[in-house]
Description:
By secondary structure, the protein is mainly alpha-helical. It has one domain. 77% of the residues lie in helices and 0% in strands. The protein is built from seven helices and no strands. Helix 2 (8-15) crosses helix 4 (40-56), helix 3 (18-36) runs antiparallel to helix 4 (40-56) and helix 5 (67-80) crosses helix 7 (114-144). It is globular and about 50 Å long.
Amino acid sequence: MIKDLMKEEEIWARHSNPKSGWSRMAAGFVIVGALYHRKWSVLGLTVLFLILNPVLFREPTEESDDWMYKVVRAEERWTNDGNCLIGLGYPQILNTVSIPVGLYGLYAAYKRKPISTVVFPLVSQGLNQWCMKEIIEYYEEADSQ
């Protein structure tokens, strides 16, 4: 839907705004909390925020050293180079494993299992960020040669 309204390059550019990235990450944890506490309106508004996120933030005016800026630009290069973010190779396996771990975290929140509700989403996000770290390092090394 949003992709139809905006060019892919513009979506990546807006996506690279650190406020966009950090708020998306936080929204994932808000979803877990809303599910755990049965706050359906918060859950719905957070999902709506995630859908609208690509158009809510402007493209940064300059390159940034912010971690989230680097993550998005590395993701963009990675996918433009024909690589997938999910797969069995390294580092994609980290993202692949993060999916069922994160889904179990949502299930745990729904079933109100407090320890699993905290641990699994954190592990999922950690795996995702580890994958992103590896992709960033790949391009930093490639650019330095």
